[in-house]
Design a protein that fits this description.
Distance between the termini: 85 Å
GO molecular function, one term: CDP-diacylglycerol-serine O-phosphatidyltransferase activity
Keywords: Lipid biosynthesis, Lipid metabolism, Membrane, Phospholipid biosynthesis, Phospholipid metabolism, Transferase, Transmembrane, Transmembrane helix
Pfam families: CDP-OH_P_tran_2, CDP-OH_P_transf
CATH class: Mainly Alpha
Strand order of the largest sheet: 1-2
GO biological process, one term: phospholipid biosynthetic process
Radius of gyration: 26 Å
Order of helices and strands: HHHHEHHHEHH
Shape: globular
Largest sheet: 2 strands, antiparallel
InterPro entries: CDP-alcohol_PTase-I, CDP-diaglyc--ser_O-PTrfase, CDP-OH_P_trans, CDP-OH_P_trans_C, CDP-OH_PTrfase_TM_dom, CDP_ALCOHOL_P_TRANSF_CS
Structural class: mainly alpha
Number of helices: 9
Oligomer: single chain
CATH superfamily: CDP-alcohol phosphotransferase transmembrane (TM) domain
CATH topology: Four Helix Bundle (Hemerythrin (Met), subunit A)
């Protein structure tokens, strides 16, 4: 019986096998940025229920800025991954779907009781549907190149930032009371419709890819001016950005239709491949 279980002494010099392959740090960095944004979104909920609405809105704004950074950092470091894409979508749902809706409910929509809560549910569900559609469209190999410059429906960060317009106005001193709650409800439902609709919204992804040399210094000056205004007059700037963004949607639709017609003309005028001639039947 002793031969069945011989003593075994492991070799101390034998390399230990790793259960998991090491992950490059360049892949981890974008996910850390996404998790920081998620922490800000969750913290904004706590701040709102403590009645501290201004820092709650600031937390969402910073989360939106980080959301625009993490993907670019991933592409810059060549650290994109399927895990990162899924994590980003889940964080966007919390930061831009759940958090703004709960803040609005705590701030104003609770005056409408159940009707206000239904609007919160509609907005959050519209956000998750919009994100799911966005993920599916990324895998479409037949999507024309020019369509990548447009979002289908309002993007998630824009939906969150525009939804908080009643709070911006309140911070500016406008009287936002129970009488405004029905208007805020209709406004929130309208944004939910824009998110799940097929209305094209310009994405601006190609801005900055090729900048003329004579525009470089003016862009630097304009960026500093915008940053200074946003720091010193945050609510005025956010209100103005919201109004300008909503006003730009019809212009985005017009531009999309122009490109769509031009693409249809190009496809129609392109030479079609000739069909192969049918072979003649052999003689009997």
């Amino acid at each position: 019986m002793s031969d069945l279980f011989p003593p075994f002494a492991p070799d101390p010099n034998e390399p230990r096998k790793r259960l998991f392959k090491p992950v490059p740090f360049r892949v981890i960095v974008p996910n850390i940025i996404t998790l920081i944004a998620l922490c800000l979104g969750l913290t904004a909920i706590r701040l709102a229920f403590e009645g501290r609405y201004e820092p709650a809105v600031v937390a969402i704004v910073v989360a939106a800025l980080l959301d625009g950074v993490d993907g670019r950092v991933a592409r810059l470091l060549k650290g994109t991954s399927r895990f990162g894409a899924e994590l980003d979508s889940l964080a966007d749902f919390v930061n831009f779907g759940v958090t703004p809706a709960l803040i609005l409910y705590s701030f104003l929509l609770n005056e409408l009781k159940a009707i206000g809560w239904i609007a919160v549910l509609v907005f959050a569900i519209a956000m998750v549907l919009r994100l799911a559609r966005f993920n599916v469209m990324l895998d479409d190999p037949h999507r024309p190149e020019w369509k990548k410059n447009f979002f289908t429906g309002m993007p998630a960060p824009a939906g969150a930032l525009t939804s908080m317009l009643p709070l911006y106005l309140s911070f500016l001193g406008f009287p936002i009371g129970p009488a405004i709650a029905p208007i805020a409800l209709v406004y929130l439902l309208g944004l939910a419709f824009l998110m799940v609709s097929t209305i094209p919204v310009y994405s601006g992804k190609t801005i900055g890819l090729n900048v003329p040399r004579h525009w470089v210094l003016p862009i630097f000056v304009l960026s500093v001016a915008v940053f200074g205004l946003l720091v010193n007059f945050p609510w005025e700037m956010l209100t103005g950005i919201t109004v300008l963004f909503l006003g730009s949607i019809p212009l985005s639709v017009m531009r999309y239709r122009q490109l769509e017609r031009a693409d249809a003309v190009r496809v129609a005028s392109a030479p079609q491949p000739e069909a192969p001639e049918a072979e003649a039947p052999p003689d009997a």
